[in-house]
TrEMBL record:
Name of the protein this chain belongs to: Phage tail protein
Domain of life: Bacteria
Organism listed in the record: Kistimonas scapharcae
Upper taxonomic lineage: Bacteria, Pseudomonadati, Pseudomonadota, Gammaproteobacteria, Oceanospirillales
Pfam families given in the database record: P2_Phage_GpR (PF06891)
């Protein structure tokens, strides 16, 4: 699930707190770019690429008094769910708030740049041809040694707890 899908699902649950209905909120991606992933092997698989894009979160006719609450929801979600933002070259979220004539309702548009990494696992039946092998999306089983015995003619035995 992309970060846009995750933040959208979170904000949809909070719409009643903002006194708006689901049809007053929409989100989409724009200006996406593919960036090489570096081929690093991780628990998720081999890092094939990063999908970098701008997410747009658009709210119509939100009560103006709730605009600050909406901004807080977005920032809190980013802090809790996208901790790698600080280590990546991503700009701060931007936004625009347009008030109606009586300053009671506002249209709010927030843009957030995200990077969604894409990982693949080797699969003989995979649809992705890369590096002379077949790959697919899926669960990756990376074995990491928790203990080891090193030495010449060392007896294999269970490590002490």
């Amino acid at each position: 699930m992309s970060k846009l899908q995750q933040i959208t699902a979170d904000l949809e649950q909070r719409l009643p707190l903002l006194n708006i209905k689901k049809e007053q909120f929409e989100s989409w991606q724009e200006d996406g770019t593919l960036e090489p992933g570096g081929r690093q092997e991780t628990e998720q698989g081999v890092h094939l690429l990063d999908w970098k894009y701008r997410a747009v979160l658009c709210f119509e006719r939100i009560p103006a008094r709730h605009a600050g609450l909406l901004l807080a929801f977005v920032q809190a979600w980013l802090d809790d769910n996208d901790p790698d933002r600080e280590n990546r070259p991503l700009p701060s979220p931007e936004g625009q708030i347009d008030m109606d004539d009586k300053h009671k309702l506002a249209d709010v548009e927030i843009t957030v740049e995200f990077i969604d990494p894409v990982y693949v696992v080797e699969d003989d039946n995979g649809l992705i041809d890369w590096d002379g092998r077949k790959w697919t999306f899926g669960t990756y089983d990376l074995w990491i040694a928790e203990a080891a015995v090193v030495g010449h003619n060392a007896d294999l035995q269970e490590p002490a707890p």
